[in-house]
Design a protein that fits this description.
Order of helices and strands: EHEHEHEHEHEEHE
Number of helices: 6
Largest sheet: 8 strands, mixed
CATH architecture of the largest domain: 3-Layer(aba) Sandwich
Helix content: 25-40%
Strand order of the largest sheet: 3-2-1-4-5-6-7-8
Structural class: alpha/beta
Strand content: 15-25%
Low-confidence stretches: none
CATH topology of the largest domain: Rossmann fold
Number of domains: 2
Oligomer: single chain
Bound molecules: 5-O-phosphono-beta-D-ribofuranosylamine
Mean pLDDT: 97
CATH superfamily of the largest domain: Formyl transferase, N-terminal domain
Length: 197
Amino acid sequence: MTKRVAILISGGGSNMVSLVDSMTGDHPACPCLVLSNNADAGGLAKAQERGVSTVVVDHRPYGEDRVSYEKQLIDALEAEQPDIICLAGFMRVLTAHFVNHWQGRMLNIHPSLLPKYRGLNTHARALEAGDSEAGCTVHEVTPALDDGPILGQARVPVLAGDTADLLAKRVLVQEHLLYPAVLQHFAAGDKRQINLT
Ligand code: GRF
């Protein structure tokens, strides 16, 4: 059975596009929904152009009430009966309740070589630390931030003269290769780690 994939975004959605565009032919998954917390997310139009349903669940009316917000998120997602949830630049912290609801079915891409640099500003932190390589990680989501079993990593060299922006662009190219590769394996039940260099 083809697995149904819901993708959560907040912004431009370039990773979402790479995932949607990868799910063709005999791929074991298909996109069923793109959900954003932000009605202005550029990725929404890109999903619609690709014939994928979209929905906005704005977090702002809920203020600090994450429980009520996540109830709406769960309802909007469950309406599409997804088998797999892909976080792709979804800029909301998720509670353990939400994460546990999708246990073993939710993936995230993070722009660092985890376990290094959980959280934000990953590229600046890699440069400040003098790292010789950087990269990105796709992992299963568990309640701890940017934690959970690693399913794949891609590495890029840090070059002389790099800025956080230059490094982010170089890593993003790899994100667009890594996330579809991991999703294809994961949807087929293969959780072996993928390493791209
Ligand atoms: C990516 O760098 C991703 O790793 C991070 O947020 C960014 C999203 O970019 N979690 P996009 O919206 O997929 O273009």
